[in-house]
Write a structure and sequence with these properties.
Layout (H helix, E strand, L loop, with lengths): L2 H19 L6 H10 L4 H25 L5
Helix pairs in contact: 1-2, 2-3
Amino acid sequence: MEAIVVAALAAGMLVAAFGYASVGHGGASAYLATLALAGVAPLEMRPIALLLNVLVSSLATWKFHRSDHFR
């Protein structure tokens, strides 16, 4: 992949991660859409989206817990 495509892919995923994490979601649908637009093969997209979804959801849960939104 070209450097510009990788940078655009990373920027799109970062924006999606912030948006979804701000409401406590992981954002797998946005990752899959971004990867599909970048031309990544479906077999490669699944584990990437799963890993990012778990990571973002875990970070969001930790932040909400630190802010005393959970009992």
